[in-house]
Design brief:
By secondary structure, this protein is an alpha/beta fold. It has helices at about 10-20, 25-30, 40-50, 85-90, 95-105, 120-125, 140-150, 170-175, 185-190, 195-205, 225-235, 240-250, 260-270, 290-305, 320-325, 335-370, and strands spanning about 50, 65-70, 70-75, 80, 110, 130-135, 155-160, 255-260, 275-280, 310, 330-335, 380-385. The radius of gyration is 20 Å and the shape is globular.
């Protein structure tokens, strides 16, 4: 066992350290998923059903792992997906994650449920920035968020479309996790056994849902679970027409996050989206659904020449990224892959996690015999039956 991020060499190391440093309700909020968590596990297991086939003696010298998604050039083919409540895990929060992403020349996603404002992020971070829009029932709030992103020069936007009702996140029910945190006897005891986290939580400037607090009370002044927030506040009537209208108002590259079928991928093309993120919300919404990697090939075959396809979910290793790229993904994204690192060590932890992945991708490309990720193809893969 260890207590230093310097000894974290992979995803599981950071997860184990985060588990030690976070109170139980907070750790299980990151770590948990819906129902029996079958899809959560499947998201990673899907990569293990596929084998890489390397070529040798190809004379690999210089490695180019850069790619372009939604018009943004990034230096490595994975970026930090938007995730909520980041300052709850570490006071560095979104700013720390964004600065770490900037150091590695990759994109940084900001959630509607973020704890740093669009304005603040824009001032401090110059790397490509993506805002993730939860479409609320409150049209005024939707317009406000889009206008803020336009005013403060965000580069891209993603509409999450798989959250019209909250998933059944049973771990949160058992731990009593809410936003703001429910200070029950059980949770206070958990806080007391994690003094470093508790010191930061109670002494650092109070965090808030910075982009929502002027419009909603849920999650700011009124305790709610994330699942209940989705169910009560988000627009269940969200349609392709509404997405098309948002795209016209936004006027910059737009991604649709949560696409899992070929039919929906084709509709995304029809409404003018620049990208789709094949995602099941980290297994946190519909349990029993397919993994993004399992759906990747047929979606790429259908629309990969018309729209950027991003594979999100279950990624723990550089080899997972190379497998997705070999099937035609333009890039990958992930949340837990940096959230555990944030919880374990703030901005520095995220930098180490990204560095670990970058070194893995580079080493694995050399071992695969490719110098540019564009050289990857289905010929590099074999699937287990």
């Amino acid at each position: 066992m260890f207590n230093s991020i310097k000894n974290c060499h992979n995803f599981e190391d950071f997860r184990n350290l985060a588990k030690k440093r976070l109170p139980s309700p907070v750790f299980h909020y990151i770590d948990g998923a819906a129902d029996d968590e079958v899809t959560y596990r499947r998201n990673t297991e899907a990569y293990e059903n596929c084998d890489l086939v390397p070529n040798v003696l190809t004379g690999v010298k210089d490695i180019d792992m850069s790619t372009t998604i939604m018009g943004q050039k990034i230096d490595m083919p994975i970026y930090c997906a938007p995730t909520a409540l980041q300052r709850l895990f570490h006071p560095d929060g979104e700013i720390g994650v964004g600065l770490a992403a900037e150091k590695f020349g990759t994109m940084f996603g900001v959630s509607s449920l973020g704890t740093a404002s669009i304005q603040e992020i824009s001032k401090l971070i110059s790397t490509p920035k993506l805002f993730q829009l939860y479409v609320h029932k409150d049209e005024g709030l939707n317009n406000y968020l889009i206008d803020q992103c336009i005013e403060h020069n965000f580069d891209t936007m993603a509409i999450t479309v798989d959250s019209s009702v909250g998933g059944n996140r049973e771990r949160d029910l058992y731990t009593g996790f809410t936003i703001p945190l429910n200070l029950s006897l059980k949770s206070i005891m958990s806080f007391a056994t994690h003094p470093a986290w508790a010191f930061n939580y109670f002494t650092k400037p109070k965090w808030e849902l910075s982009n929502l607090n002027k419009h909603v009370t849920e999650g700011t002044n009124l305790m709610t679970s994330v699942g209940d927030y989705f169910t009560k506040m988000l627009d269940r009537s969200l349609s392709w027409k509404k997405v098309e209208d948002i795209n016209k108002k936004w006027g910059k590259p737009l991604a649709i996050k949560g696409v899992m079928s070929v039919e929906d991928a084709k509709k995304a093309v029809d409404v003018g989206a620049s990208a789709i993120m094949i995602s099941n919300h980290g297994g946190r919404q519909l349990d029993g659904s397919r993994s993004p990697f399992d759906q990747l090939e047929e979606i790429v075959n259908a629309v990969g020449d018309k729209i950027d396809v991003i594979c999100e979910g279950g990624i723990k290793r550089g080899t997972h990224i190379l497998k997705a790229l070999s099937l035609g993904a333009k890039a990958c994204s992930g949340g837990r892959m940096y959230l555990y690192a944030l919880a374990a060590g703030g901005q520095k932890g995220v930098e180490i996690a990204l560095s670990n992945l970058k070194k893995e991708i580079e080493r694995d490309m050399i071992l695969m015999g490719v110098s540019n990720i564009k050289d990857l193809s289905k010929n590099n893969l074999r699937f287990r039956v």
